[in-house]
Amino acid sequence: MFAGAQVSLYPMTDGFVDVIMGALSALDPWRDQLRIETDDISTLIVGPPEVLFPALRDLYAKAAATGEHVVLRATLSRGCPGEPDDPICQTNALANPEQPLAERQQEALSAIEAAPEKGQVADAQFSLYVMGAGDHMAEIMGCIDFLKHSGTFDRSKNFCTRLTGDAGPVFATLREAFCRFGPPQGHVTIDLTVSANSPSKR
Amino acid sequence: MFAGAQVSLYPMTDGFVDVIMGALSALDPWRDQLRIETDDISTLIVGPPEVLFPALRDLYAKAAATGEHVVLRATLSRGCPGEPDDPICQTNALANPEQPLAERQQEALSAIEAAPEKGQVADAQFSLYVMGAGDHMAEIMGCIDFLKHSGTFDRSKNFCTRLTGDAGPVFATLREAFCRFGPPQGHVTIDLTVSANSPSKR
Question: For the Thiamin/hydroxymethyl pyrimidine-binding YkoF putative domain, which residue ranges apply (chains A, B) (predicted)?
Fold first, then answer.
């Protein structure tokens, strides 16, 4: 299995380089479980979902704590058939395909309840894509049903779903959506935007 | 059919509101063929691909012309089974499913040659997702083969492909990737990032 994300931070300030560089230290506790490569558009972070999501959460929370309007953007993927297996991605976080949708939804809700708060609000918007054989709309509809009970659900929009709340439960919700819906051997992706301190909200 | 995009502009400057507001006038020539709704995270633009891509191109080019480091982000979708048919999305731009992949690739290349230049460089990164029944990887591989001959291909990365060149042919390449691969009745999405004036490139 190969899993990871292409991640970018967009601080809407003249001091954008300092905000980005300052936030990167939030990845330090996770670095030995990830492979990280940067270019001028995005940073590739390769690793299992149970490390990837808390790492993104901490990166976001540190950037948001500057008080600047900052957006974290990520293209997340697991199981892409075009990518090679990688030992660093080994994971126990993916759902058992034999398990009924209702049970997976219940376990996902329990995982959110256990998530620690981070003290930063996260306004998130994301699309979940399930590729390949099988009833991908059934998995997506099952995921949307879970999201509506997650405590972080804000509203559905065209092409995506909005979440809001503390960064802890919001990124836990995203991790559960990514891991528990769609087959463990399937190709699942998330197109994610998380916004902090937007002046449009004030 | 329902088609459109959730679009955001991220100018990395204290004057981000002015850059965004100034760029919006680039949509004026297209507004009567689109439906546009804005919230604090993104702007929904609903309309057919042949209007959507030039509208995004003009929005990007106008923002890039400020000289600021600006990123345009879009989640594009066509044919999502969860969205209602909408007359404003009626399109003749989608490929004939009976047409062989090689012919579709050739027509896509001709369309890029016909694209006008806009005078702004676009460094783009995108993922194409083809959902539902059928061999989605064959369509994606066919699309990647087209991209490699497009004249705008930069390189493949994990989870995505990079394009670079004038905004005219780059957005034409994106339009062709969106329209000519995957079935016309299918659900196809693009996760798109386009970056202007990045200091990391200097």
Answer: 3-83, 122-201
